[in-house]
Design goal:
2 copies of one chain form a homodimer. Chain A has one domain: Rossmann fold (3-Layer(aba) Sandwich). With 286 residues, the first copy, chain A, is α/β, with parallel strands linked by helices. Chain A has 10 helices and 12 strands. The first copy, chain A, is globular and about 55 Å long. The first copy, chain A, starts with a strand and ends in a 5-residue tail after the last helix. Helix content of chain A is 39%, strand content 17%. In chain A, the strands form 4 sheets. A 6-stranded parallel beta sheet of chain A has the order 2-1-3-4-5-10, sandwiched between helices.
């Protein structure tokens, strides 16, 4: 089991929790690293101590809430870019780390030049969240890094433990509370919601693969409009849906292909949006 | 004079000092903003107070020493990316700032796909210094920023007040001390050394131009090899030159074109390398 010791940074976050649990279920020794446990990515000593006793790292720690990142871009950059650079530097000095899997996002692509977007598409991130994620990617690719890495550009993640200000739980909770669902814009912006368990499997496959130094999209094929999600909620609990002005800085939707992950990692989503949504809603999947 | 009040961030650094002096000579009221004056880019209140009384910003504050950035990539990222994001956010909230000129670097291009490199070339920065500079650029281009900006990608700057660990003063000081000049690699790597006064003029032109939302290379045409510089020093003071192993992470040389700056800003270098070198050496230019 020695080769299955993995550190999860951001282990108290939504995806961190899911990945930690998933890897434990797969027989990994998953160690936590999170501010919630008093462990700071910007503190070299915390990193040294935690990295010394593992072989792999799943690096998720970041200001994962895009609204918070917009509100405090300084924090997003210091944690996301500074913290990632710090992790890479400490891992390089220690020399026991076999691979780091970095949680990036489909949002690094920015405005699409062609669709579906593959990993060769240029990156033009346009929000403090995605800019910080992308700069973190570049730190892995830097000439100064010698620790093997895989970058996963994740779809819009959903699943248990997700932030309550994310669109799906927000809509569900509005309906449950008898309040109005508010949609910014026409609600026709699409997202490829990707279930946290599918994402966690992407991390496992990336860890166990011999491949390093590659970038993979980990994004479910299906896409939903925000309006469709509101309607799905409404079909379960009657609720009023209101449309307001488009929100500043909202991400342009784009279709992303995960063909490379399928081909080289054997990754494909297993959770359909309908099942994942029902599970989140509190109903068992059909 | 009201419209000529400019804040220089990083005003105690090599380029900051030069730009501050140059703009003062051109009739600007140049205000300083530097850690050396107790003013921190990561502190919103410091920024608010300083930005409130100016119209323009020349944003140079960063970990400008590439060796320090390699040693402390966390610091480079927090100051460079976090600090830049902070500056942009505070400027957006204040609404009095007419334009910010951002000091970026030719090094953001990374490995050249074609040469000479123009501003349309893709950016693949591969060092914590250039990654941080590039992420700062992206923060300016973010959807959340509404303050007009111009990004200047500067050539390898030289001139008075430059850091003593930069190649030219390092070689001069070795020769003056009767020590050996050490060159990492074969010394055939080229640099387009661009004089600080020429760079300062680039900032002035960018400030005064009606153009915003554009990126310009500000790089002198001439290029020198490191070996040539050592030989130029040797021709003034006899000194031994020793070649050692190539240094890890050193930037791949590339020819950069400033044709766009010439066309749209009317910028061209005025200081020949020979004159700038002689001036730095302590001899008057010929």
């Amino acid at each position: 089991m020695n080769s299955k010791r993995v550190l999860i940074t951001g282990s108290s976050g939504f995806l961190g929790k899911n990945i930690s649990q998933f890897l434990k279920d797969q027989g990994y020794q998953a160690k936590n690293f999170d501010l919630a446990d008093g462990l700071d990515l910007l503190n070299e000593n915390h990193l040294k101590k935690s990295l010394a006793s593992v072989d792999y790292v799943c690096h998720l720690a970041a200001v994962g809430d895009v609204y918070l990142a917009a509100k405090s871009p300084k924090l997003a950059a210091c944690v996301g870019v500074g913290g990632t650079a710090n992790l890479i530097q400490v891992a390089n000095n220690l020399k026991n780390i076999k691979k780091i899997i970095y949680a990036s996002t489909w949002e690094v692509y920015g405005h699409p030049n062609y669709q579906p977007i593959d990993e060769k598409h240029s990156c033009n991130p346009d929000h403090p969240y995605s800019i910080s994620k992308y700069a973190g990617e570049l730190m892995f690719r830097s000439n100064l890094n010698h620790v093997p890495w895989v970058i996963l550009r994740l779809g819009s993640a959903y699943g248990s433990n997700m932030r309550t200000n994310a669109v799906i739980p927000l809509f569900i909770n509005k309906a449950k509370a008898g309040e109005v669902i508010t949609i910014a814009g026409d609600g026709l912006q699409t997202r490829q919601f990707t279930h946290a368990r599918d994402i966690a499997r992407g991390f496992q496959l990336a860890l166990e693969s011999k491949i390093a130094g590659e970038v993979f999209n980990i994004v479910s094929k299906e896409s939903q409009t925000i309006k469709e999600i509101a309607e799905m909620v409404k079909s379960k609990i009657p609720v009023r849906i209101k449309y307001t002005a488009k929100r500043q800085g909202d991400v342009v939707p784009a279709m992303v292909s995960s063909e490379k992950a399928r081909r080289l990692l054997g990754w494909m989503e297993k959770v359909s949006f309908k099942d994942g949504f029902m599970e989140l809603f509190g109903f068992p999947g059909n």
